[in-house]
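User: Last request for today: this protein with pyridoxal-5'-phosphate, please.
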Amino acid sequence: MRNSFLAFGSPLIEQPEIDEVVASLKTGWLSTGPKVRKFEDLFREYKRTKYALGLNSCTAGLHLSLLVIGIKPGDEVIVPTMTFCATANVVTHIGAKPVFADCKKDTMNIDPKDIERKITSKTKAIILVHFAGRACEMDTIMDIAKKHNLKVIEDCAHAIETEYHNEKAGTLGEVGCFSLYVTKNIITGEGGMAITNNDEYAKQIKILGLHGMSEHAYERFGDKGYKHYQVLYAGFKYNMMDLQAAIGMHQLPRVNKYWERREEIWNKYNIAFKGLPVLVPAAIEPNTKHAYHLYTLLLDIDKLTISRDDFLIKMRQRNIGVGVHFIALHLHPYYSQTFGVKRGDFPNAEWISERTISLPLSAKLTDADVEDVIEAVKDIIICSSQRK
Ligand SMILES: *Cc1c(COP(=O)(O)O)cnc(C)c1O
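Assistant: Here's the final one, the structure of the complex with pyridoxal-5'-phosphate:
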């Protein structure tokens, strides 16, 4: 057994970003400034979009996206129940109603058939999540959206590298929102990016993301002379700092290198767990690119003497950090009490919620770390499948 704890979702941080952060501190320009501009430019080039807007989180991006596409109190927005709470919370922040849809058992992505069933005269938009980095069924979903005149926002928190039929995730809907949180594929600690090709959305996201002010602090305090700003809306404080961009601008050029390492780990796990009472992630759909953000193992709990939660404890006892992505949102008290959703409503998401466990999948892992994870999983499964 390993003697040091292997943290789940530990980022790989290298010397250039450490130096860049220090350099930012020395210039005194900590908040939104030239490094945010540079990082936005790099992101825009990477995604080949017209705009990339640096923000302090993906959640901020999702909130602003809903505002700029015109979601109003009382509107309905369809969201997957198999996601992180931020996807649905932003809908409630506007006074709109999140309407949950089930996922598919194998891909864990939102089920287009359930989207169609949930559409009412109040439905205005869909927020998609490319779950674990696997592309949603975009052709089918975009057809549904077109038919019912719905706008699509892509929650790409897991999906920076994801592609669908040669199109990059985040470029298929109105706005794509990325997370640079510390556990994601590339990181700035806290941070997010919103991408769009729409001039008006980009302009509004910029304004609403910084207090609703007409001019950015960057231009206000720069060397081009003082300019008054006007407050156009009651906006939000969602801007990215140069300190964050200082990390991101060095992480982004390594996005493919990190992806290749995670693919290698992914394939090792797939081979190692063959024949065990677990389901490894479904095969990757043709003509798509998976971002390999989460390696989710589904435990065949009927064949084991322990529950998923016991499994989590045993992994930690073996010094391996693990995650659960996710307990479906409708099973959490806030959503069930507020929107009347309950156990039994979304059978596939519930099935996954009871069985899923995410294993470490960071580019930081050494081969020895990967072997430790594999050994721990095998050991626990063998010990708990004897008596049934
Ligand atoms: C992490 C995550 C978010 C939130 O990202 P932040 O940058 O922390 O706001 C949103 N949606 C999903 C699916 C996530 O996993």
